[in-house]
Amino acid sequence: MKKIIFTLFACIAIIASTFAQGSVSSIVPNNGLAGTSSLDIIVRGSGTHWDGSITKTSIMFNPATGITVNNVTVNGLEMMIVNIAIDAAANGDRNLDIKQGNMVYAGGVFGIIPANSGTVAISLMVNPVQTINISDFDPNNLGSSPVLFTVSIYNDNTIRKNLTATLTVKGDKVSSIGTATKKIDFLNKNAHLNFNNKEFDNYKLDQGNKAFFENAINTGTLPADDYEYTLTLTDQSGNIGTVTAKTVLSNPTTRPELISPGSIISMPADVNRNPLPVFQWFSQGDNFELNVYPVMEGQKTAEEVTNNRPMLKQTGIRTTTFVYPTSAEVLQDGKLYAWQVRRTNNSSSGTAVLSSEVFWFRYQAAGKAVMTVSDLKITPEETVVPAGSSFKFNAQAFTVNNELVTDAVIIWKVLPSTGGTIDNTGLFTASTTAGSYAVIASVGEYKEYSNVTVAPAYMGSMTEASMRLFVQKLFGLTK
Fold first, then answer.
1. CB neighbours of 274 closer than 8 A, spacing ≥ 6?
2. Which of 121, 164, 190, 404 is 20 to 30 A from 257, comparing alpha carbons?
3. Is 0.85 surpassed by the pTM of this model?
4. What kind of fold does domain 21-115 have according to CATH?
5. pLDDT recorded at residue 464
6. 8: part of which helix (H) or strand (E)?
7. CA–CA separation, 251 vs 54, rounded Å?
């Protein structure tokens, strides 16, 4: 049963959050050539809370010899840019740790490629983000475009001429997207060349994949998928080397939508009888902060409540369910409480924090009322509905003895509301806005939801000109 699974996951999350801390999730690029005097590396964290207190003395490479940190720029809770210099005689891997107060974030590895190594080395490092926004790419202002990936080429002892770097991009679901090419006229002995997605010369689109480009232009983001980048370096003699990298886009572009317990603070507060309530919300993200607030007498707005000191603040939640821990402050009979969820999203334009509405509920100790319903099931638990189409959901309420409650009045709701409408029989009609949504069934304080994906209905109106415009924006091309 889904509720039992959610509760199990939530208990695991509680145990994990007690012992786990944030870590370094990626470094782009993750290597550099010995003798480089200035190299910017983008350091991404997972579950971190970086701030301006992190300076160059906070960056620790192990072993420490061979790398000097010039400066550090913190760009958010989970991203910073570290500029380093690499000694000419350095080589090998370095473990990267970041110290902040008493906390040490570990997990990063940076490699040093020795000068005059005698071999050609190619690296392709993708900057990990959850969302790539098309609006971030302005073909008339290349400097404003974000860096999606970085290519590094380290030549051997041979002078090379007339090279071509060819990048192909494809997704697991959307298949081939196209290619971009860059001409390299000359590469000296032991030379080191860096370039990124903004510095290609030309491109070729997969004309058969119009659905991908239609979706991207209509939604303003690249479709959620597992993307694979493959870069091949060739010269007149043939293939010199090939490298592949992957990135996953989940597109959690909407704020979390709360499900239970409680109701929006502008409505009368629902009653909750569980002393350890199970907080549930709907979101496409995977990095949440939950705050539970006491509601003081006379407070009636979200602004008033969220200015209170939270009685529970839980960060780094990776699921959309959380059980109120036994170690937290005990809920008082008859008292009002409120809660809110915040989500961190790493997009191509930086880190954004999206906050949910504020829900509130009144805790009432068990035994003061008899509830006929003790469980609720909704079927199916997930489905895909084409935009503009309809689908029938079913929900059943049960007693504590698992007996069907035939006269239960089930209330239906769609979150976010832009996903479509649903009537009192459970008939869902999808909107024209593609994305992931929750269809919620509720009986009193009991709620359950189903994941529904509204699939885009492509009309075949995509033109080659609009496809070209899309790729111009993506790769920062002016041609």
1. 261
2. 404
3. no
4. Immunoglobulin-like (2.60.40)
5. 61
6. helix 2-19
7. 29
Q: Dihedral (C-alpha) 449, 454, 455, 460: value to the nearest 10 degrees?
A: 170
Query: Could you report the per-residue pLDDT of 446-476, keeping only the tens digit for each?
Result: 888 888 888 765 434 455 666 666 666 666 5
Residue 188 three-state SS: coil
Is residue 358 within 8 Å of 338, Cβ to Cβ?
yes
Per-residue pLDDT tens for 38-80?
888 888 887 788 888 899 999 999 999 999 999 998 877 778 8
Rounded CA-CA distance 439/392 in Å is: 11
According to DSSP, the β-strands at 103-113 and 31-33 are parallel
Spatial contact of 110 and 59, defined as CB atoms under 8 Å apart: no
DSSP secondary structure code for residue 309 in this structure: P
Distances (CA, A) of 392 to 1, 406, 427, 429, 450: 21, 19, 4, 9, 12
CATH number of this structure's domain 370-459:
2.60.40.10
Q: What's the confidence (pLDDT) of residue 228?
A: 86
Are 315 and 49 in contact, with CB atoms under 8 Å apart? yes
Contacts of 454 (CB under 8 A, 6+ apart): 385, 386, 387, 419, 420, 430, 431, 433, 434, 435, 436, 437
Q: Is it the case that residue 13 has pLDDT exceeding 60?
A: no
Note the CATH number of domain 252-369. Answer: 2.60.40.10
Among 46, 26, 122, 18, which Cα is nearest to 344's? 46
Reduced to 3 states (helix: H, G, I; strand: E, B; else coil), residue 45 is strand
The pLDDT value recorded for residue 9 is: 36
Does CATH number 2.60.40.2550 belong to domain 116-251? yes
pLDDT interval class at 416 (50, 70, 90): confident
Token digits of residue 469: 């415009």
CATH 2.60.40.2550 in the chain is located at 116-251
How far, in Å, CA of 287 to CA of 349, rounded?
18
Q: Report the C-alpha gap between 143 and 290 in whole angstroms.
A: 37
Lookup: tokens for 400: 């504590």
Interhelix angle 464-475/210-219, rounded to 10 degrees, is 70
Count of positions (residues) in the chain: 479
User: What residues contact residue 19 under an 8 Å CB cut-off, 6+ apart?
Assistant: none
Joined tokens for residue 44:
């991404």
User: pLDDT value at position 471?
Assistant: 65
Query: Does 291 score more than 90 pLDDT?
Result: yes
Q: How many CB atoms lie within 10 A of CB 9?
A: 16
Nearest to 436 by CA among 221, 254, 279: 254
Parts of the chain belonging to CATH 2.60.40.10: 21-115, 252-369, 370-459
